[in-house]
């Protein structure tokens, strides 16, 4: 499945994307805000993620996408919703630093949220961000997620923060 916007294609990850992932996820300016990808990020990590995204795209309603430039098909980042128990999904995303400040992530998140409304078990979406990550807070608010305040995180972030700002969006059909 491919989701398209004016400038982007949200699509399944392909082997050709791994080099961009390794480059961008080895950038501390990107990684300092993330908790899941290992740092430093290696080719084997990209290959493992490729397998996960490919399996997700074999489902009837995929929720993990590479953000690709519509004209060049270059991988710019990733956006996903991890759907857990009780209809709750957690939004996650990252974008290579060379692409910051152009509205790309807002465009990608908006497209994924539109797609997510059709997921049969998704009732509520949450997202968390480091309290110092103003860019992420702006994206979440602009895309309609409401701030719910600070909450403790299970372990400190890469930046040493022991709390996260939580955002929430009920999924209306």
Characterise this structure.
It contains five helices and eight strands, in the order E-E-H-H-H-E-E-E-H-E-H-E-E. It is of the alpha+beta class and 173 residues long. Strands 1-2-3-4-5-6-8-7 form an eight-stranded mixed β-sheet, sandwiched between helices. The chain starts with a strand and ends with a strand.
CATH architecture, please? Answer: 3-Layer(aba) Sandwich
| Head-to-tail CA distance between termini | 20 Å
Sheet with most strands: strand arrangement: 1-2-3-4-5-6-8-7
> Which of globular, elongated, flat, extended, rod-shaped describes the shape?
globular
Number of helices: 5
Largest sheet: 8 strands, mixed
The SS-based structural class is: alpha+beta
* CATH fold-level name: Aminopeptidase
Number of domains: 1
Question: Taking Cα atoms only, what radius of gyration do you get, to the nearest Å?
Answer: 15 Å
Task: Reconstruct the topology from this structure.
Elements: E1 3-4, E2 8-11, H1 18-25, H2 28-31, H3 43-57, E3 64-69, E4 75-83, E5 88-95, H4 104-116, E6 124-129, H5 134-142, E7 146-152, E8 163-170
Parallel strand pairs: 5-6
Antiparallel strand pairs: 1-2, 2-3, 3-4, 4-5, 6-8, 7-8
Helix pairs in contact: 1-3
């Amino acid at each position: 499945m491919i989701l398209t916007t004016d400038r982007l294609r949200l699509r399944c990850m392909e082997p050709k994307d791994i080099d961009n992932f390794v480059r961008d996820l080895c950038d501390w300016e990107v990684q300092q805000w993330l908790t899941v990808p290992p740092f430093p990020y290696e080719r084997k990590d990209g290959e493992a993620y490729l397998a996960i995204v490919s399996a997700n795209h074999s489902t009837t309603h995929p929720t993990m996408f590479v953000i690709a430039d519509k004209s060049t098909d270059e991988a710019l980042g990733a956006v996903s919703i991890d759907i857990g128990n009780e209809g709750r999904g957690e939004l996650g995303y990252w974008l290579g630093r060379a692409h910051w400040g152009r509205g790309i992530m807002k465009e990608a998140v908006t497209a994924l949220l539109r797609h997510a409304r059709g997921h049969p078990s998704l009732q509520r979406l949450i997202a968390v961000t480091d309290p110092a990550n103003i860019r992420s807070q702006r994206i979440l608010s602009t895309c309609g997620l409401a701030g719910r305040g600070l909450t403790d995180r299970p372990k400190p972030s890469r930046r040493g923060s022991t709390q996260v700002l939580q955002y929430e969006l009920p999924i209306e059909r």
